[in-house]
Amino acid sequence: QVQLVESGGGLVQAGGSLRLSCAVSRSIFSPNAMGWYRQAPGKQRELVATVASGGITNYVDSVKGRFTISRDNAKNTVYLQMNSLKPEDTAIYYCNAKYGSSWLGYWGQGTQVTVSS
Hints:
By secondary structure, this protein is mainly beta. The protein has strands at about 5, 10-15, 20-25, 35-40, 45-50, 55-60, 65-70, 75-80, 90-100, 100-105, 110-115.
């Protein structure tokens, strides 16, 4: 089955930047869309950003102007450039891929992002 492997997380001070990567492997077809989710301790997982195969992007309001999602279709890889990080961005970040009208029903291991104040 399709595998999702996230990387790039770490510990950063408020105001800093990180770039996350997610490789989608074992995929015969290119996903219609790719996205980043995050889950903070004690909170539900939320959708942070998506990018469609044509390049159209969407962001949750809390990250607009600070995060940029992009994808390399040839590599089936999606990126999340995170700037001006805030402590409230602290979470485990997961990627997912959409085929047809459905996102995959499982997740990779995620990558931890911790922003200190």
